[in-house]
Amino acid sequence: MQNPELGCLRYSIGAAGQRVELTPYLDAGVTNADSNWNDAFWSIHDVEHRGPGQAYVRTETNKTQFGAAFAMTTHAHVADESGKRELAQASAKSEGALAGIKFEAELSQGQTLILEKYVGICTTLQHEAEHLVKAAFAHSELAASTGWESLVVSHVDAWSQIWSQADIEITGDVASQQAIRFNIFHLNQTYRGDDARLNIGPKGFTGEKYGGASYWDTEAYCIPFYLAGHPEHVARQLLVYRFNHLEKAIENAEKLGFSDGAALYPMVTMNGEECHNEWEITFEEIHRNGAMSYAIWNYVNYTGDRDYLRTHGFAVLLGVARFWQQRVQWSENKGSYVILGVTGPNEYENNVNNNWYTNYLAAWCMRYALEVAKWLKTEHPGDWSGLTSAYSIDEPSTFKAWDTIPNLMYLPQLEGTEVRLQQDGFMDKEQLSVDDLKADQRPINQKWSWDRILRSIFIKQADVLQGLYFFWDDFSLKTHEVNYDFYEPKTVHESSLSPCVHSIIASRLDRMDDAYKHYLRTSRLDLDDYNKEVHEGLHITSMAGTWLSVVEGFGGFKVKEGKPCFNGKIPHAWQRLQFRINFRNRLLAVVVSEDGTEVNLVKGKPIEVEVNGQAVQLDTPSH
Amino acid sequence: MQNPELGCLRYSIGAAGQRVELTPYLDAGVTNADSNWNDAFWSIHDVEHRGPGQAYVRTETNKTQFGAAFAMTTHAHVADESGKRELAQASAKSEGALAGIKFEAELSQGQTLILEKYVGICTTLQHEAEHLVKAAFAHSELAASTGWESLVVSHVDAWSQIWSQADIEITGDVASQQAIRFNIFHLNQTYRGDDARLNIGPKGFTGEKYGGASYWDTEAYCIPFYLAGHPEHVARQLLVYRFNHLEKAIENAEKLGFSDGAALYPMVTMNGEECHNEWEITFEEIHRNGAMSYAIWNYVNYTGDRDYLRTHGFAVLLGVARFWQQRVQWSENKGSYVILGVTGPNEYENNVNNNWYTNYLAAWCMRYALEVAKWLKTEHPGDWSGLTSAYSIDEPSTFKAWDTIPNLMYLPQLEGTEVRLQQDGFMDKEQLSVDDLKADQRPINQKWSWDRILRSIFIKQADVLQGLYFFWDDFSLKTHEVNYDFYEPKTVHESSLSPCVHSIIASRLDRMDDAYKHYLRTSRLDLDDYNKEVHEGLHITSMAGTWLSVVEGFGGFKVKEGKPCFNGKIPHAWQRLQFRINFRNRLLAVVVSEDGTEVNLVKGKPIEVEVNGQAVQLDTPSH
Asked: Are A448 and B257 a contacting pair at CB < 8 A?
């Protein structure tokens, strides 16, 4: 964890009165399980040996021409009470894609063969191609000479630093405690935040599914985790990733017939280009574009770093707002702007009209872009003038569109109620609830034909609730309650991103049994393999959602007008919940128990927070 | 044309003072242009020679294990004024997939080298596998000994018989005349009606696109052509094809969660199994199922062959009606039965609710099944009792469902008008007409992204008009006019099946300029290559639609209560239209000119017809 370009392994083997042969090797011949015709994803350039105990492989990916070098230095020795005896390599062999080094020893009672393998891993993301092997060996040799014990110390130290800020303690419920730590561990394994060219795949590095590419999960679920649990630059890197892809997003929108700098971010991407191949996802699941703007708002609201808007953020907000501005159309019939032919986050619908989540988010994107534009114009007129010329912004027509369209956006609602309707025609569906489903019919995505899923009322993840969660303060508590009661019984939670949002909302509505049930489902999804799919890899981005359900749900954490607010409530099964929050260069420690919520300043300057609606001044770091 | 298992070629070459070598061969090494990795669709078993001038190849298709043998007998001779001299083969060579026979000759002034190739083509559809080669050589040798001139006579004779009944003469407009004959020729080239295991692919045998499989085109467009232009058994074979697939259609419906004998016919098929691989087509374009019932009604209405209903037809009507009965669902909201999540014939929409065409057709299917069931019960109680037990029909609940559901079917209509709405939400689209499209934006399926096409108002083929055409007498002339005026301006006709229906309706509405415009487009589609796609093959099934636009459109032909009715009107460009109709063992000749419509009996017993609403008794064959 201390050095991302280093991987180390150590084996000890005891085998009294046996001859032992051990051959550590590097294998460049890996393929993806789901590749066509076993096609390799990279070409192998070198598979070679160097000095004693040393070998390396060098490869280059076929599509993207990333070079990678893996250099190993191995040591083996036999240890017993009297000390240790270094082994020389018995032989070295490179064959096909394998470079191996063989060690041999006769072991007697009380003797152990110990093998150490120090592998430097360098890619052309960080190094010139011609220096790759040299750099990989430099890591490998430095590690070998540093030695296993010292490396373990610095690895543990790096993790301790992470845990000191990121740990969550749940007292009284081992299953909950185990689950949240499992999730926090994996989130930190996946993303470090030191390179804006990298992002977070839904499976991280734990499985091939989704191909390591990035989805809107990053913006909608992961940003808050990295904001609160890491230094600010980590979340910022994730935003810069999208800023750097703006040009490709504009090209992507152009391919679909948009113009004048409208940007449509891809559904799935490595380098900014759309990698998904189904039209109903790439062309219609356009809500993802709104998540790009929402993440910027979230970051700025959390960190107060308005500078980011000037240098990066507004350009993205502009491209996204321009997209919506062109994607809406006026309906004479409804006397409103409508958005036809979309797929919302609830992917158990397809090609629907006026998905409430999408329409609301689109309107919000234009409003927020207008707010930031006006702020730039007033506070940073020089920047504004630069931006209007760089991005050819016609101020009057742009301001007018961003003012008019959101106010006239059609937002479907069930007449006479506070229910926001998922989409046009939702009430024509057969009005069933999940209780009407027999157990042998679930999960419906494994039991039903696709058309039957689509025309049923059952919801993969409730996107109206997702929208209400994002824009909580825009609605009354009554509205939240009514919609939760309307959608929760129809939701089968067959998206891993579903239960966490339901848990947060249930906490906010004081439905602690519901909140706890959903928390267990989201947090133990992989540990208990609820969906029978853990062989495909872990649900990394949903783990960030789990974290949200603890910190924003049970912890009641929210940032309002630059102030951290807490309103903790824990489920009956828990005695105490403790977590820490990084907030604008302070470290805050929060304890929630039956006695209430307590917030302490651990590090940083004095700050005012709000606990259960009461302002609390925190002056002195408490420990 | 006289022998479907025979193909003959003849070449003559004049080349004074030259040595000529000619090698006729059989090539078993054919592949499909669109195959993956150039995979062959069949395996080659034999490529061999036999006696002088003879060779054969034998193959077997890989998926379906159809065996095929191709046996050739070749003759070559040199002819001049003094007579002809037979050539012996110079050599014979089989190499790889090619079996060739070489002829050589020195030609002098006035001499011609004539080569004849007689190929017998036999498959395991008609022969035992072990007799294939023998049978193919029997055809080949018989043809060779019959000789070219006699074979030409019987070929021409077979075609003359076809043309004597099928020809359409258009006087005064060469482009129209050429087009209709081109279409009639190809329709007869494609389907002969002597084998109920065969059907009609949208490209016939003229291109690989659609893989030779069958679509609803057969039922919706081709049946009337074969009814009127051929003996009755030809159209009947096409119906029997679907009857034979009933069990597979029931299995297909079961896969999608239907039960109790509900049948869903495949969108695309060779042998009854679904061959298409897109869910939005196979799961949602279910209107095709209604076309199966409509074709039965069409056939019985035309031929009067009610016996077919007892032996074959009702079983299909039952399976289809059971499908619709399960596929509808009650909407509390609308107080009606609705059909959600379908794609209509207008494939520029996807996954819509309450497609008017589908809903109307589904209701009609249940009504017609009920009508036939009641007729069987009354007139053929023995058959009815056999059917109820063979197909487990619970009479009371079945009759009730087929009575209730159609009467409560939701049929979207534009309030305050006679406009039938294509689907729910249609009026929320931007209300544009094709005139608003710039020329460089067409065809939109080559210029626009798929999502943009879907959410636009533009229609590939107007399915409301298709439904109104099918069920013309259910609606007032006013309704037809209003809907034509509503939909025609929104229709881009990017389906080859679109203009023919518009042409018929325009004729019926007395809009002869429109009718003529659409006729030219449908009839000359391939000759003039309007859609720049003739390299993919000819639009065979749309050619049947063209025939409809002449006979039902300009000829005003319709069968009402067993009586042929005519109401001819021709476009200004034409002087006269003449066609013949096979009707219940009579041959009727129809002439339409500015002077009106004249109908004569050419062959068969006296009959009463209706011309322009007046009954006319035809007693004596007129020529």
From this structure: yes
Percent of residues in chain A assigned helix, strand, coil, to nearest 5: 45, 20, 35
pLDDT > 70 fraction of chain A, expressed in percent and rounded: 99
Pairs of residues, one from chain A and one from chain B, whose beta carbons lie less than 8 Å apart: 88
Mean pLDDT by 10 residues, chain B (623 residues): 95 92 94 77 94 95 92 96 92 92 94 97 95 96 95 95 94 97 95 90 90 90 93 93 98 96 96 89 96 98 97 98 98 96 97 98 98 98 97 98 98 98 96 95 92 96 97 98 98 94 98 97 93 89 96 97 96 97 95 96 96 94 68
How far is the C-alpha of A428 from the C-alpha of A455, rounded, in Å? 10
Tokens of A181: 């730590």
Nearest residue to B214 via CA among B540, B522, B549: B540
For the stretch B40-74, what's the b/e string if a residue is b when 16 or more beta carbons lie within 10 angstroms of its beta carbon?
A: bebeebebebbeebbbbbbbbeeeeeebbbbbbbb
SS3 labels along A559-616: EECCEEEECCCCCCCCCEEEEEEEECCEEEEEEEECCEEEEEEEECCCEEEEECCEEE
What is the model's pLDDT at position A91? Answer: 92
State pLDDT tens for residues A486-535: 999 999 999 999 999 999 999 999 999 999 999 999 999 999 998 788 99
* Interacting residues of A181 by C-beta distance below 8 A, sequence separation 6+: A167, A168
- Taking CA atoms, what residue in A is nearest to B447? A257
- Chain A residues with CB under 8 Å of a chain B CB are 255-257, 279, 283-284, 329-334, 338, 340-341, 350-354, 424-425, 427-431, 448-452, 454-455
What's the CA gap between B347 and B280, in Å, rounded?
10
Q: Which residue has the tokens 């000191």?
A: A164
Question: Which 3 state secondary structure label does DSSP give B220?
Answer: helix
Contacts of B329 in chain A (CB under 8 A): 429-430, 455
From B209's Cα to the closest Cα of chain A, the distance in A is: 22
Is A347 marked active-site? yes
| Cross-chain residue pair B455–A428, CB shorter than 8 Å | no
* C-beta neighbour count of B535 within 10 angstroms: 9
Which uninterrupted H or E stretch holds A400?
helix A395-407
Task: Give the neighbor-by-neighbor strand order of the sheet with B168-171.
Answer: B168-171, B576-583, B586-593, B596-603
DSSP per-residue codes, B461-477: S-HHHHHHHHTGGGS-H
CB neighbourhood size of A585 (10 A):
12
A257 to chain B, minimum CA–CA distance in Å? 7
- Residue B449 and residue A333: Cβ atoms within 8 Å? no
Q: What is residue A421's DSSP assignment?
A: P
Q: Which of B232, B274, B284, B347 is catalytic?
A: B347
What amino acid is encoded at B616 in this protein?
V
Q: How far is A448 from chain B (nearest CA, A)?
A: 7
- Least CA distance to A426: which residue of chain B? B333
Q: Is A614 exposed, middle or buried (0-12, 13-18, 19+ CB in 10 A)?
A: exposed
Residue A227 has pLDDT above 70, yes or no: yes
Out of A279, A334, A352, whose CB is closest to B451?
A279
Residue A481 has pLDDT above 90, yes or no: yes
Mean pLDDT in chain A? 95
**With an 8 Å Cβ cutoff, are A331 and B454 in contact?**
no
Count of alpha carbons within 13 Å of B480, Cβ hemisphere only?
22
Question: Distance from first CA to last CA of chain A, Å, rounded?
Answer: 27
Q: What residues form DSSP beta bridges with B78?
A: B85, B113
Q: Which residue do the tokens 């305050």 mark?
A: B416
CA-to-CA distance for A228 and A232, rounded, in angstroms?
8
Residue type, B387: L
> What is the pLDDT at residue B478?
98
- This prediction's pTM: 0.90
